[in-house]
Amino acid sequence: MTAPAVLDAPRPATAARRRVLLAPVTITPSKPLMPSHLKGLFWTDVMYRATACLAEVDYRFSHSTYHLTEQTLAFWEFLDRTQGDTGYAELTEDDIGSLYVRHRAAEDRVPAAALRPYADAVEHHEWVHPAATRVLELWRSHYARLGLYDPGLLDHQPPGLDLEEALEHLRARGLCLDHRAVGGPVYLDLTRHGLPLRQIVTADGRPNYLACALRELLPLAPHYDELVFLYDRELDPDYQLLARVLGPLGPDVHRVTVGRVPVDGRIRSARAGGWQGLDAAALLDAARADHGEAAIRLGMRLYFIATLGPGQAQSHRPDLLRQCLGRAERLLAGAPDTAEPALPARLGVHRRDHTYVDPYRLTTSLLGRRRPAPARDLLREVFLCP
C-alpha cells in the first residue's frame, strides 16, 4: 500500500463502505514464530477477512518502518561483528533465533555511530540484512501453509514521513518536547491529557518503536474512518498515546489487546529462546500427521482465538489444540454450502459500536452446541482463504 500524501484531507465516507485501517504490532524478524505471535496473527487475519466483507479494509504491517529501531539495527550490527560473511540463505529460524538469544544475553549497547550506517542503508537504499530476509522468507512459507494473508512481508513499505517531518507535526500541535538542542532526548508530550511524558528519540538520535509508528500512521490516519490497533497488553501505555495523537486527525481509534500465550504457566520472551517444539514449523508438522490443510487452518483459528481467548490465563496445551483440529474436521464435514441470511448480515452481528468484526465473538460462534454448523461460504471467506 502506497502511503498517501502527508496529512491530506480525509476522503468522505460512504454510508455503505467505511474505510478501516488495521495496524497490528509488528514482530521483529529475528526468531521463529512462537504461540504468542501466532495468536496475534490469527486474530488479525480473521478480523481482516471478516471486516473486508463489510468495509474497505487495509492491513498495515510494514517491517520497513520498524527496521529502524535499535532492537533491530543492534542485532544486525552484532551479526556482522560476530559472524562475518555468514551465508544466511541456508540457515533455519532456529539458527538465526539462537544468534538473537546470544545477542540479547550479551547486553552490550553499541554506540549510536555504529548503527547509523545501517539506518542510512534502510532509510535510503531499501536495504535489509540477509538474516532478516531469510526469516521473513520462512515466515511467508508459514503464512501460506496457515492461510494467513500476507500484508507484504518482503515488500519495501517505508513510512510516509521522515522523522523530522513527524516531529514537526507534533510540534505544531504542541505535543513535542525536543531537547536535542541542549543534548537531550525528544519526548511525546501529552501531559495536558493526563498521560505521562514518553521519550521517543534518545539524545544520540535513536528513534524507538513509538517514533517509527508515528512516522507511519500520522499520514495514514486522516484517510480512514476507523483505525484498529492489535497488540499485547504490555504495550497498552504506548497505544494509549498513539490513540490520543491520531484520533483528532479523523478516525475512530480502537485498541484491541490480545494476551500472550503462557507456556507451563509462564509468559516467555523469545529473546530467551526455548521455542523448540512450540514454533510455527513444529506445530504445523505435528498437525499434518493427522489432518488436512483445511482442518489445520480452521483448527488453529479455533484454538488460538476461541479457546485461548483474548486474555492470557490459559497456558498452551497441545491436547486442546488437537481437540480443536478434530472439531475443525467435524465442522468441515457438516458444513452446508450457504446459509441465511447473506454472509454480510451473519458477520455484522459480531460488531458492536465499531465497523470491524470481533474475531473472538465470530470464532466462538462456530462452537455453540445448539447452533447450526457454519456454512462453507463463511468458512471459505474468513477461515480457509488461500
Protein architecture, described:
This protein has helices spanning 35-51, 63-66, 70-83, 93-106, 112-125, 130-146, 163-172, 209-217, 236-246, 280-288, 293-307, 318-334, 343-348, 359-364, 376-383, and strands at 19-24, 56-59, 176-178, 186-188, 198-201, 226-231, 252-257. The chain has 386 residues and is α/β, with parallel strands linked by helices. Among the domains are: 160-218, no CATH class; 275-383, no CATH class. A four-stranded parallel β-sheet has the order 2-1-6-7, sandwiched between helices. Strands 3-4-5 form a three-stranded antiparallel β-sheet, with helices on one face. A hairpin with a 7-residue loop joins strand 3 (176-178) and strand 4. Helix 1 crosses helix 11 (293-307) and helix 11 (293-307) packs across helix 12 (318-334). The radius of gyration is 21 Å and the shape is globular. The two termini are 20 Å apart. 41% of the residues are buried. Residues 1-15 have low confidence and may be disordered.
Give a brief description.
Among the domains are: 160-218, no CATH class; 275-383, no CATH class.
SSE layout and pairings?
Blueprint (H helix, E strand, L loop, with lengths): L18 E6 L10 H17 L4 E4 L3 H4 L3 H14 L9 H14 L5 H14 L4 H17 L16 H10 L3 E3 L7 E3 L9 E4 L7 H9 L8 E6 L4 H11 L5 E6 L22 H9 L4 H15 L10 H17 L8 H6 L10 H6 L11 H8 L3
Parallel strand pairs: 1-2, 1-6, 6-7
Antiparallel strand pairs: 3-4, 4-5
Helix pairs in contact: 1-11, 3-5, 11-12
**Helix segment tally:** 15
Q: What does the largest sheet look like? A: 4 strands, parallel
Radius of gyration: 21 Å
Report the helical percentage. 40-55%
Percentage of residues in strands:
5-15%
Determine the structural class based on helices, strands and strand pairing: alpha/beta
Q: State mean pLDDT (0 to 100 scale).
A: 93
Low-confidence regions: 1-15
Globally, the shape reads globular
Strand order of the largest sheet: 2-1-6-7
Total beta-strand segments = 7
SSE order, one letter for each helix or strand: EHEHHHHHHEEEHEHEHHHHHH
The first-to-last residue Cα distance is 20 Å
